[in-house]
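Instructor's aside before we start: the two examples that follow are unrelated to each other. I chose them only because their records fit on one page, so don't look for a connection. First example below.
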Amino acid sequence: MELENLELSHFRNYEEASLTFQPGVNVFLGQNAQGKTNLLEAIYALALARSHRSKIDKDLIQWGENQARVSGSIKNRFGKTPLSLSWSNKGKQARVNHLDQSRLSTYIGQLNVILFAPEDLDLVKGPPATRRRFIDIEFGQMNKTYLQLSSQYKQVLKDRNAYLKAWSFGKKQDQVFLAVLTDQLIDLAAKLMLLKKKFLKELEETSKIIHKDVADQKEELALHYKTSVPMAELNDVEAVKKALEEAFQKHGDREKKQGTTLIGPHRDDFMIEVNGTDVSTFGSQGQQRTAALALKLGEIDLMYQETGEYPVLLLDDVLSELDASRQTHLLLTIENKVQTFITAPSLSEVARSLIKEPKVFLVKNGTIQVEE
């Protein structure tokens, strides 16, 4: 899969921009605050209909304008597909092949991307919410069922939490209606949790090979799914539902007092172990960075397994955060495999020696020039 071109209109600091890319490595060079990351953000938004930097859509619209638009043409084994996404006061509008999409779930997955930024190094040592978001974003691109289940789950969870919150304030509520919401949540949660378990097992398989190479065959990576019921022993929907029902019964009074749902995949996490030790707590910074790099690179092969297409890789100023050895492994892993977009103030000697014939764009004050 590759992105052939990108058109911007009133997106961030770009009034208008039109770029054509090559299948290999494309590099955006420039000093800070010139607009390099805005270009990666535009590609990310074109893929996932959201920014990775802001939850507020209007932040993407150029100051003083009423709407913003990004568009581009993707090429995969089935042919070419034009995509576009626009933001205005009326909301967000997504189009595939120039046809409006009434639901974002039908839009997401047309262009698969993996973003690796300095903050992703916190994937290992950061809070559980960081790892939950990682799973939701990456697996949602690969699997339409996961994306739909996740959306439905979040809506039922929102309704159930609102009901429990009213209960915690002493308002009399209908126990039967709460039971209906709980049953709906359990059904969706069981299916989601089994998909998460499957995803993490597959990610472990692809990542541990890369991790072992980076660590000179001296360390073994393992991922362990942490949730409110013992998923290691559960392998079918009915068994998971039964375990969840028991957990909800056990914590029912606490939920009413606290006014929130205490059980379910919205509270999940996964542990990252290296040689049997929790690397997030006891690993060195080098081990943590190696684990994060392995997980991100492992996603590339996992996406290919799940979708039949390699994703587009976005590297946002991450090379400067990696030492020469990890830079080398990263660049050799992606060589001739995935279309890659890199932002950096400048390219290191390591990168210059390993990247073959990159297409370089010079970015300054919202203007873009192709390096001759």
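Example two begins here.
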Amino acid sequence: MNASAELLKELRIDRKAGAPPPSTPRRGLWIALAVVALVLLAGIGWFMFGRQRPIEVSTATVVAIQQGTASSSVLDASGYVVARRMATVSAKITGKVREVMIEEGMRVEEGQVMATLDPIDANAQRSLSASQLEAARSQLSGLQAQVAQADAEAGRLQALVGQQLVSRSQFDQAIAQRDSLRAQLRTAQRNTRVADDALAIADLGVDNNIVRAPFSGVVTAKAAQPGEIVSPLSAGGGFTRTGIGTIVDMESLEIEVEVGEAFIGRVQPKMPVEATLNAYPEWKIPAEVIAIVPTADRGKATVKVRVALKVKDPRIVPEMGVRVSFLEAAAPARAAAPTGVRVPSTALVQRDQATVAFVVDQDQRVQQRPVSTGIALNNDRQITGGLRAGEVVVVNPPPELRDGGKVVEKQP
């Protein structure tokens, strides 16, 4: 009986054994996709937030030291760029402006027409003078014909008087008539010359209605418009202009510096000067002392010094602020001029107890490079080793800047 029961149990269907096994591969696929997604998210997060962002910096170019650039400054001062040749151009007469042919920034040549005035009055005066000249010439022609006739008549009568065919009184009357006509002819000739001179003066009056540039230069101000009244004497008060425009000869630009009385003894004529415009602080302009004006300003206790610019450049314009450094002249008995290059002093920093500069390569990455320094050159520093002329260095490198760091040029 027990054996039959065991046999019946063996004939039962095992439904658990027929069920499909759990889907292990599908679960592994989902795990792999989740891992890949996490890696991608981590990569995107590093790309956006974890990578090193470029640092904005200012740069300067390494410059080779030229002869004479190693002179040290004996005095620093500030002044302004001025023009020795500047004129506010006006008309010689009072009149109404008809046309203005200049604009600010325009270059004009000597004799070029800048403006014209209404020439109605001047043209009328010239027409009158021309008519008077024609009348004088007509009168002169008539008298010349009468004198010629009187000369011929006197000649004939003189022959007849010798033959006693006419009376002596008749001949004397002909001579008197001829002399009177000659006197009238000389008066007519003088009147003709006077009329001719009057016409020339009238021509000058017409020409005075044209305003021309007295010299070559650049227009810095336009002061009048068509329809306005201009006068060199400003007749008419505030409604009358005194000039057409202002022109400046850019070739005559120089620097005027006011030096304190206590330091004027350091300045000498022909002394070398290094000028720096406030608008272009990295541009060193060579200059030279022209003269020391022999008078002082008792209110400010200063003496004016004129400095000539050795470089002519369109960037230099009147009334610009400028800083000048009076340099000591290099003595001929000194040793050879220093070699190497020069960089702004602000490009040098101390890192790991060494003086270094950060050089920018073509990939906009910096290389921390130790340098050997020399003498001070005003706001620059002499570098005797570690840098080459033409390389670009970072000015005022921030503390977070490191070797190999990415930089970008700071926008002005």
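Residues 331-335 have pLDDT under 50 and may be disordered.
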